[in-house]
Specification:
The chain has 408 residues and is of the alpha/beta class. It contains 18 helices and eight strands. Helix content is 49%, strand content 10%.
Length: 408
Amino acid sequence: MHVTGIIAEYNPFHNGHRYHLEEARKKSNADYIVIAMSGNFMQRGTPALLDKYTRTRMALNNGADLVLEIPSVYSSGSAEYFAAGAVTLLDKLGVVDTLDFGSEWGQADELGQIAAVLADEPDQYKIILQDKLRQGCTYPAARAYALNQTGYSLTELYKMPNNILGIEYIKCLIKRGSIIRPVTTKRMGSAYHEEQLNHNYSSAFAIREAVFAGKDLDILKEQLPENAYDIIREHFNSYLPVHPDDFSLLLHYKLLSEADMGYEKYIDITPALSERIRNNLYQFTTFHGFCDLLKTKDVTHTRISRSLTHILLNMESDRLERCKEMDLVPYARILGFKKSSTGLLAAIKAKSSIPLISKLADAERILEDRAYKMLKYDIYVADLYNSVAAGKSRQPMRNEYSTPIVML
């Protein structure tokens, strides 16, 4: 049995994602494809346009066999932590033999050479890295410089977000001594940050911007697989799209209530950023606007957004440390699966080193105490998202305990 893993957000699912799934199955001759997918908050520090169950349905309708949720502490993390959580989840299943990721470069071997340096951290690399950090460089810039000096020309490659994630995926596989083989599918169509819709391979960012701008959904017909388009149109009959600014009041309240203490206990919050947040609290207008206000030459809008999301979600640094004590991921939570994948589920139950959670009501009995607390935190994060999404659309709030997993 050949099983390919894919790490994704599908925010939302579009033609490029379907192409990736088709190519991944073809290249590895996969019997099954398992998706490790972000929940309701994304790696760039923003809430998902659509809830995780809607996006799961899109994935299952377009080639995925099983969708698992990446725990929240990783799904909204930096590239390194996002990759570590997602790769560890797939690795612990015991059945995945290939990890297929999209990249702008399209050559896994060369990305793997860079990942090997990052995993091993030779002395020359570490000396140069620390020197640049002491000079005040951001970590990504310092790392790119150190890699260049170590012999890897990354001027263009390291500007490309999917390449960066791919390198982190391979680095994690190396560190874990995983048997999973990394392969990459070259990204089709628009660049990751492209803001304009093109013919039929637009970026997820451009699609979201079109939705937020209130454009007629018919404009998305050629951007999404037909069934995904039908799902998104049906969803928006009842729910409005979720935008980061929908969380503005919650975030401002949180920032005001903790201003005296500062925010350094949260992941990614430096003393300098904490002070900058405090000094600008009275200039707060919206989530997005506050990110623009706080960003600097060395601290990007995305980094600020991610940091503010960590504050909003009570994502303290010691939470991540507790996860490390459990080897990052202590359970696999099912969001959805195809009924034809019963053989895959049986294999996972037989070979996985972590419990497979299909019913939240059973979780407390199945999981040890620390793992259950981590799952409860995931539920809290989902509840926060669901409360805002429901309030915006004047709908009853979704209950994670009574929401069935998606089965097709």
